[in-house]
Amino acid sequence: MKLIIKFTSIILIVISIAGCSKEKRILDLETYLKSRCDYVHQINGFYIVSSNQKPNAMGTTSGTTAKEVFEHSVRLFSNFLDQNEDGIIDTELLELSNGLSENMIFVSGHLRFVDKVSFAKSVEDNNLYAMSMQTNNWEYIKNYNGKGWKLNSLNSSTWRPDIFNALWEETFHTITEAFSRFDNDFKFTKGSSLRNFMEADITAGTYDISVQNQEENGDYDKVTAVNEYIHQIWAIQFSGQEDKLNIHQKNALDFMINKKVPMTLNLNYNKTLGTRIKG
Fold first, then answer.
1. CA dist list (Å): 255 to 95, 115, 196, 240, 259
2. N or C terminus: which one in the chain shows less Cβ crowding within 10 Å?
3. 75-124 per-position pLDDT tens digit
């Protein structure tokens, strides 16, 4: 009996130490983010941060400020997690919310700032993977509504709407990247369902990634390609043109819907989940 009590006590002590260690790492992370970033927000432990560097990518709407991009990113993530728009995280999306907080961080700003935060020791100590909105490289179009454009078919990884706000894409990529890290069925690697859908599309000659691979000097890997593929499919269904998807793309869309990937956004969504920490 004494041995059992002693062994149980040791386990409790180890768990307590591990818990304290995790709390310290999170505290260190927030301290770092407040010291290095101009804007900091967290939703259930998922951090969204930004510099105050002026967005200056070619095509960006004139007069756009860093704070506008940051606040828009907070609204997008809030809406993704609050599909019924009642101001709280949807019950069926709590697993996604936890997946974001345990695996991801979102960073907006110029590339040098993004890299500095993404590879900071406190970020890596928390095993967080950074997704970003590089405001000196990717255009931000005010009042983009995800609709108003037409296409005949999705046949290339290089396709994007003629008028496009990259922030929508990068926040969605963050959502699906989080899924890939907590759901063993939601992977982008060889043999996964989503990878198989894309490769079947390529084999059928109805989708191409070779042009983009050439543009990126052979560095466009299929893991990245799958995440791009499912964003394109999501964007097309959002625009109301689901009928333009082929059978492989519809299979990928059905897979996402069954996995409860958030499918809608409301341009007039005005709620803010979480807490503003700085800015």
1. 17, 33, 12, 18, 6
2. N
3. 999 999 999 999 999 999 999 999 999 999 999 999 999 999 999 999 99
